[in-house]
Amino acid sequence: xxxxxxxxxxxxxxxxxxxxxxxxxxxxxxxxxxxxxxxxxxxxxxxxxxxxxxxxxxxxxxxxxxxxxxxxxxxxxxxxxxxxxxxxxxxxxxxxxxxxxxxxxxxxxxxxxxxxxxxxxxxxxxxxxxxxxxxxxxxxxxxxxxxxxxxxxxxxxxxxxxxxxxxxxxxxxxxxxxxxxxxxxxxxxxxxxxxxxxxxxxxxxxxxxxxxxxxxxxxxxxxxxxxxxxxxxxxxxxxxxxxxxxxxxxxxxxxxxxxxxxxxxxxxxxxxxxxxxxxxxxxxxxxxxxxxxxxxxxxxxxxxxxxxxxxxxxxxxxxxxxxxxxxxxxxxxxxxxxxxxxxxxxxxxxxxxxxxxxxxxxxxxxxxxxxxxxxxxxx
Length: 379
What we know:
The structure is a single chain. This protein is an alpha+beta fold. Strands 1-6-2-3-4-5 form a 6-stranded antiparallel beta sheet. Strand 3 (342-348) and strand 4 (351-354) form a beta hairpin. It is 63% helix and 7% strand. It has helices spanning 15-40, 50-116, 121-127, 131-202, 206-246, 265-276, 294-304, 313-316; strands at residues 321-323, 333-336, 342-348, 351-354, 363-366, 372-377.
C-alpha cells in the first residue's frame, strides 16, 4: 500500500510566514547598512584633556591681547590722521576765503581800469583841468598799478598754497583709509580669538570646568608662592643695604632708605589710581573710566599722576628708566611675554595691579603669573 506523505507547507506560503521572513530580511539589511556605515565613518577624534584646553585657551587669550595692542595702535593712528584731515579741511576753508578776497580785489581793479578806459598819460594830460590834477591822477594810477601787481601776486600765492593743501589733504585721507582698514582687521582678529576661546570653554562639562578652575587656582598659588619668596629676598637685600649704609661705626642714623619699598610721589599717585579701579571689568580697547584693557589702565593711572604715556604696551615700554625686577618700586610698569603684549603696575611684594583678560576684572596678582619681559619707571 502506497504511503501518502502530507505535502510540506512552505514558510512563505502563509501570510504570517511571509511577514516573519520580511522582518528578518529587513533586519539583516539594516545590520549590513550599519556595519557599512561604521566601516566608512572616520573615527571620532578623542576629546582634548582639560590641561590641553587650558593651554589652548590661554594661548588664544594671549593672541587676542597681541591683536588688541595692534587695534590700539591702529586706532591711535586713525584718530591722529582724522584730526590732521580735519585741520587740513579747516585750513582749506580759510585758504578759500583768502582766495576769494584776492579775487575780489582783482575784480575791483579790473572794473576801475574798465571805467578809465585804460587811457595813456598823454590823453590824461589833455583831459586834465590843470597840470596839478594830472600829477595827482598819474601818481594815483602808479599806486593803483602797484596794488594791482600785489593783488595778482597774492592771488597766485593763494592758488599755489591751496593746490598744496589739496594734495596734502588727499594724501591724509588715503592714510586715514589705510589706518581704518588696519583698525577693522585688528578688531576682527581680536573677536575671532575670543570667540574661539569661548567655544572651547562652552564644550566643557561641569566636571571639566571644575577641573579647569582647580588648575587655574594651582597656577595662581604657585605664582603667589614665587612672589612671597622674591619679596622675602627683596627684604633681605634691603636690610643688607641698610646695614652697609650704616658703616662699621655702628651709627644709629641710616639717613633714609633708598630701597625698593620707597616710591616716587608720582608712582604712588599712579598706583593709588590703579588700585581704585580694582573690580572694574577688562574690555579690550578700553581706556576707562568704567572698563580697561591692560595698557589702557596703566595709561590712565599715570595720567592721573601728571604723566602722559603712549597708548600701547609696545610704546609704553620705551618710556622712562629701565628697572631690574629686583629693584622694582610701587608704580613701576612690568611688561610680560617676549612680544610685550601685556603690562601691569607694580604694587610691592612681588604683586601688581592689572587688567588681566576678557571675563576678568582689574585685580591684584603676582607678577610671576606670566613670563616677565622687563620693567620701566615712568615719570
